[in-house]
């Protein structure tokens, strides 16, 4: 009896073990099947969602070609909503590329270009709506791309490709155009105050009369850009490339141009009062009649620059290189010229009243290098004339020895 009891106990124990193993295996298989089914359903939902996203993109892209402006605007907002709904970075980038391509397409407002005319009660023809500007749908595209892109939560910055776009009189105030490609873009009269154009490509761009006050253009490429009469007051142009740029009559009051490349740029009549041009390269630049009063030109390169009639009152030219520069009739009164290199510079009729020439290289100024009395061709006070005369005497003594 004792033996049977013990045997039955072992059988029950084994049964319980096998049962537990079976339940575990069954549970594992069930869990695996449930996981597989969940993944399958998730995959199907993703495929369906992507199909729906694709369908929305295709439909919206077709509507972009509509002749009706309200349809095109609706398509733009549909694409943007799609970009915010999708979780795929590739979809977001694709939609942004589509919007950029739409802006790059011919967007000139012909209704504005071909100005309408009306007759008033007296039969006099009056022009109406003569201002040329971009279309409303394109402006909406710009607002979304440059001001609301943070809504897309992109993992890496997106740089707009707006090369050769027609953006005349567009509103881009405080727009984010960091490293954007705006090469050859028509931005005449555009409003860009406070815009971030750091590292942007603006070579050959048309920015005539553009409003760029307080804009960030650090390291921007502005080679041969047309910036005539542009407002660049307080703009940050440090280390920007402005080689050959047209800046005639541009307003650059207190602009930051430290280290900027302005070689062969045309700055005729430009207003640069109080601008910071420390170590800027102005080799061969045309600064005829430019306003440079109180400007900082420490260590600037002005070799062969044309400064005829320029206003340099109280300007800081300490250590500047003015080799071969033309300063005919320039106003250098009370300017700091200490340590500057004026070799071969032309100072005919220049006003140097009160200027500080301490440690300045005056050895070979053409208009005062032959006879001491030719110093009178330069407007200076008696003390300065005596200093220049002594310099010339010392130079001639060194030559003969």
Record the strand order, biggest sheet: 1-2
Q: Strand-and-helix sequence, N→C? A: HHHHEEHH
Helical residue percent band? 25-40%
Head-to-tail CA distance between termini: 139 Å
Number of strands: 2
Broad structural category: mainly alpha
C-alpha Rg, in Å? Answer: 36 Å
Average of pLDDT: 83
Share in β-strands: under 5%
- Poorly predicted residue ranges: 110-130, 366-377
Overall shape: elongated
User: Largest beta sheet, briefly?
Assistant: 2 strands, antiparallel
Number of helices: 6
Secondary structure elements and their pairing?
Blueprint: H1 2-63, H2 69-85, H3 89-104, H4 110-113, E1 116-119, E2 125-128, H5 136-147, H6 382-400
Antiparallel strand pairs: 1-2
Helix pairs in contact: 1-2, 2-3, 2-5, 3-5
Brief summary of the model shown:
With 401 residues, the chain is mainly α. 32% of the residues lie in helices and 2% in strands.
Descriptive overview:
- With 401 residues, the protein is an all-alpha fold.
- Helices cover 32% and strands 2% of the residues.
- Strands 1-2 form a two-stranded antiparallel sheet.
- α1 runs antiparallel to α2 (69-85).
- It has helices spanning 2-63, 69-85, 89-104, 110-113, 136-147, 382-400; strands at 116-119, 125-128.
- The model is unreliable at 110-130 and 366-377 (pLDDT under 50).
- The longest helix has 62 residues, at 2-63.
- It starts with a helix and ends with a helix.
């Amino acid at each position: 009896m004792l033996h049977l009891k013990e045997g039955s106990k072992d059988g029950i124990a084994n049964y319980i073990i096998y049962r537990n193993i079976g339940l575990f295996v069954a549970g594992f298989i069930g869990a695996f099947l449930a996981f597989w089914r969940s993944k399958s359903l998730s995959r199907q939902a993703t495929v369906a969602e992507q199909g729906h996203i694709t369908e929305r993109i295709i439909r919206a892209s077709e509507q972009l070609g509509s002749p009706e402006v309200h349809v095109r605007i609706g398509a733009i907002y549909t694409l943007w909503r799609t970009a915010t709904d999708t979780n795929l970075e590739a979809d977001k980038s694709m939609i942004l590329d589509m919007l950029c391509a739409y802006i790059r397409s011919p967007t000139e407002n012909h209704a504005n270009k071909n100005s309408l005319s009306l007759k008033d009660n007296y039969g006099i023809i009056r022009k109406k709506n003569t201002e040329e500007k971009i279309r409303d749908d394109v402006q909406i595209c710009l607002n979304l791309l440059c001001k609301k892109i943070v809504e897309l939560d992109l993992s890496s910055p997106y740089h707009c490709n707006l090369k050769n776009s027609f953006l005349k009189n567009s509103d881009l105030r405080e727009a984010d155009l960091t490293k954007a490609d705006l090469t050859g873009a028509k931005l005449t009269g555009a409003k860009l105050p406070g815009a971030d154009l750091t590292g942007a490509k603006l070579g050959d761009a048309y920015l005539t009369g553009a409003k760029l006050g307080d804009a960030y253009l650090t390291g921007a490429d502005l080679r041969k850009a047309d910036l005539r009469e542009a407002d660049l007051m307080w703009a940050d142009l440090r280390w920007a490339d402005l080689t050959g740029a047209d800046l005639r009559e541009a307003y650059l009051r207190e602009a930051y141009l430290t280290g900027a490349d302005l070689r062969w740029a045309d700055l005729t009549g430009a207003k640069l009062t109080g601008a910071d041009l420390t170590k800027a390269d102005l080799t061969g630049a045309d600064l005829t009649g430019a306003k440079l009063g109180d400007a900082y030109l420490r260590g600037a390169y002005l070799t062969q620059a044309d400064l005829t009639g320029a206003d340099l009152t109280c300007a800081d030219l300490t250590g500047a290189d003015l080799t071969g520069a033309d300063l005919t009739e320039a106003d250098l009164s009370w300017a700091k010229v200490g340590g500057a290199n004026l070799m071969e510079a032309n100072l005919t009729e220049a006003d140097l009243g009160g200027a500080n020439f301490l440690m300045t290289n005056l050895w070979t100024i053409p208009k005062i290098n032959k006879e001491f009395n030719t110093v009178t061709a330069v407007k200076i006070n008696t003390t300065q004339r005596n200093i220049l005369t002594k310099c010339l005497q010392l130079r001639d003594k060194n030559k003969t020895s």
